Amino acid sequence: MQNQDLIVLKRLAGWRAAGEKAVLVTVTRTWGSSPRPIGSIMAMSETGQVVGSVSGGCIEDDLIASFTRPDPATGQCAMQLEGLPKKLRYGITADEAHRFGLPCGGTLELMLEFNPQADLLQELITSLDAGNLMLRRLDLSSGQASLESTESVSVLKINDTELVNCFGPSYRMLLIGAGQLGEYIATMAIFNGFTVTVCDPRQEYAAGWTTTNVHHMTEWPDDAVRAFKPDRRTCVLALTHDPKLDDLALLEAIETEAFYIGAIGSRANSQARRKRMMEHFDQTPESLARLRGPIGVYIGSKTPAEIAVSVMAEVLAVKNGVELPRDMEVARAKAQQEQERQQA
């Protein structure tokens, strides 16, 4: 599965290139609880096709009805798919919040942009596919949009004259090791919008890989990491349990801006890895501070599928800037369990 924004933009670009009228809807403000965060987008064609989401579904239904279902008495739709950008607000009253499924009196403000330029949409898609971070500016007085590249992620900004939304390329995951655990993690990562690459120079493992929509590399992992060029939207996971494969890849990864770097293994193996790196590769506790291991959150996982759930949960928490409680760390939880058994 692609980055959700890319899915929306590609469908919208296709509609517009085919000459269909369409609207791009952006969440610009929220008050109280809201189903989707600021900056979320959806698109709707004149035939009522919808991609993306701004709520749990009720607001989408209302937009479809307003733009595509004529009033039997007048033969006209409540709103037309044309004109200058239009602001809508849902959930102002308790009745509306209940009607549209907004939780606890939440209020949602949307910006509707009619018939975006197909060529500019394609330019944005091409830039995102190339791995660029982009700003899209919408002039609210004219409805004209423009693009510019940026080096840092920013939140949506809106004032009386323009709306500026930041779009990023898909998050990337580089897996070192094409074993069974890697397949489970890759499947979950793809489902969560990551572009996944697996590296394994061992032919017998690479040949047995079955998960589709994954890029493959057969270089030695340290060379693969250098070629991959991890950035702030990249995570690197070492899964082979083989020091000559995992360690060199991790040493390269910690020199990059990857948001998550970790390796599978027991507490003893993780400690041994750090010791090797400090003794033989001039690393220090400070230089290894970003290296995670054992990876995952503690859920009592035993099978490869359960371990993959644990690992993916931690990756997503780090990606989303959530600091997990320390007692969810695998090493801490297992140490606590051992202490409790000894005291029993």
Distance between the termini: 48 Å
* Uncertain stretches: none
- The CATH superfamily of the largest domain is NAD(P)-binding Rossmann-like Domain
Largest sheet: 6 strands, parallel
Order of the strands making up the biggest sheet: 12-11-10-13-14-15
Count of domain modules: 2
* Strand composition percent: 15-25%
Number of strands: 15
Please estimate the helix content: 25-40%
- The helix count comes to 11
Computed Rg = 24 Å
Overall mean confidence score, pLDDT:
88
Tell me the overall shape: elongated
Q: What is the class of the largest domain in the CATH system?
A: Alpha Beta
CATH architecture of the largest domain: 3-Layer(aba) Sandwich
CATH topology description of the largest domain: Rossmann fold
SS class = alpha/beta
Describe the structure.
- It is a single chain.
- This protein is an alpha/beta fold.
- It folds into two domains: 4-167, no CATH class; 172-339, Rossmann fold (3-Layer(aba) Sandwich), CATH 3.40.50.720.
- 35% of the residues lie in helices and 22% in strands.
- It has helices at 4-17, 58-68, 94-99, 118-129, 180-191, 203-206, 221-228, 243-253, 267-280, 304-319, 330-343, and strands at 22-31, 41-45, 50-52, 86-90, 107-114, 134-139, 145-149, 157-158, 162-167, 172-176, 195-199, 215-217, 234-238, 260-263, 291-292.
- The chain has a six-stranded parallel sheet, sandwiched between helices. The protein has a five-stranded antiparallel sheet with strand order 3-2-1-5-4, sandwiched between helices.
- Strand 14, helix 9 and strand 15 form a beta-alpha-beta unit.
- Helix 7 (221-228) runs parallel beside helix 8.
- The radius of gyration is 24 Å and the shape is elongated.
- The mean pLDDT is 88.
